[in-house]
Amino acid sequence: xxxxxxxxxxxxxxEIGMAAIDHGADAVYIGxxxxxxxxxxxxSVEDLARLIxxxxxxxxxxxxxxxTILTDQELPEALEIIREVFQLGAxxxxxxxxxxxxxxxxxIPLIASTQMHNNTPERVQFLEAVGFKRVILARELSLxxxxxxxxxxxxxxxxxxxxxxxxxxxxxxxxxxxxxGRSGNRGVCAQPCRSRYTLTxxxxxxxxxxxxxxxxxxxxxxxxxxxxIAAGVTSFKIExxxxxxxxxxxxxxxHRQAIDQFxxxxxxxxxxxxxxSTFAFSPDPDRTFNRGYTQYFISGRREKVASIDTQKSxxxxxxxxxxxxxxxxxxxxYDLQNGDGLCFFTKQNDLAxxxxxxxxxxxxxxxxxxxxxxxxxLYRNHDMALIxxxxxxxxxxxxxxxxxxxxxxxxxxxxxxxxxxxxxxxxIKVLFEPPRDPSRAREQIETHLSSTGxxxxxxxxxxxxxxxxxxxxxxxxxGIRRDVLEALTRIRLEKYRRQTILLTSNDAPYPEKKLDFxxxxxxxxxxxxxxxxxxxxxxxxxxxxxxxAGKMVMTTRYCIRHQLDLCPKYSRSRxxxxxxxxxxxxxxxxxxxxxCRQCRMLVVLERN
Length: 608
Description:
The chain is of the alpha/beta class.
């Protein structure tokens, strides 16, 4: 039996979602009109309906994210939204708040958001037991940890493979709420992890000053897709509901090629949707927004995962400066264009940048020469050539069809069968005369029936009977082709079958017996859910706490000591640090605690 693999792309709006499908996505995820983890990335009901119909034509799926924690007052409205998106045809619901499982949900498949911190076999087993169809795995997991989850469960496993990384375990970060009153678990994270901090030791000695000490590089696991498949992942997710259409087009196309390359060498795997995309460009994630790339912990703790000198995009490394003039520089690269944005790190390791005003052969004239010198590495973070291509129609996705044309007894019949086995035909009476040039008549039929234009189809095969057909007007040929493909489109949409799963309550035991604020219980329905499954809620959600000083606001596998070569386990450095270490952003002070046994770092709010 074939295993289907799914490329899952983000959709900040319907247009971006449709572009993702054009560029090869098997599914897209998009925010519900309210209550998604990207509060500003929700869409209207009309746009959602438009996206769903477009996706379903290609047998691609649309998942709607309603993955925040909710108050008791918000639950009725959330339920109405869920019922509405189900009626529109959404294929699954991504959620975080377990209180929703206590409501009378429609039979829409449920996906456990990564905000639920799905990091152990026991947690995933529980989610499978209570009715979830899929879990989105914690980003921090290694291949071995994913494989262990796969061995102990049968639920679908979805993994992030590209995009921005939260430094904290998802759903376990309270830093934004503590610092600004904006909760990440309520969809309005202020991203304090992308702020500057000064790191000091117990005596107040400065170790690093005004650096982005919690800002991680971006994830790129494109080269690890075969390993993820071997570990049990079948859905590969690109982060980025706040990203623009250029990013989604480029990154989706790149991952489409990577997954297709794997499938081409493994006949027991297939795509999970229909059609093949062709691109008007060469996909390359380096040429799109990125903070530098990391594989994070997929192979264990092997690399430095933070980008402490900048939280901004650095883009693609394009070379080093080899020569300088009065108002120009030279480098061993000849594809720079007027309007390109380049950046570099100064001697103080701060990111600086400039625009290319003009390029004259080997001479590059920037709008600013400050800080440039021979040997300076340059990065391109604004690629005009790629942007121009991506602003236009940059991909076509076509569903393969076989056509059979028959002409006899005053009738012509055109039958079509698509790659999924759907069939349609059209039959018309027509007067035709023997052609003066039989080969020309046949060639005209082939040309006009194969010219599918802006339809989502491509003719992979065409049979014509008899061998020497009669002459037919071009308008007749175009008309029967148009009619049969429109009929096929209707049939494809009618035959699309989404999965429905009716949720049935049970009392499967939760793997933990006592739950504090990190369980994110904000409503009484969630409390009842956990209590029914044998867990005691000892503390409500962080958002309800009046005094948060001394609370742990972040738990992370990222370790500042490892990043700075000060780790007693992994680093050769023997420089002792007087602990506790603290960071300060000018308004708030946080203390680091190190759990070396589990190789993780805890961030505690000291002063607010």
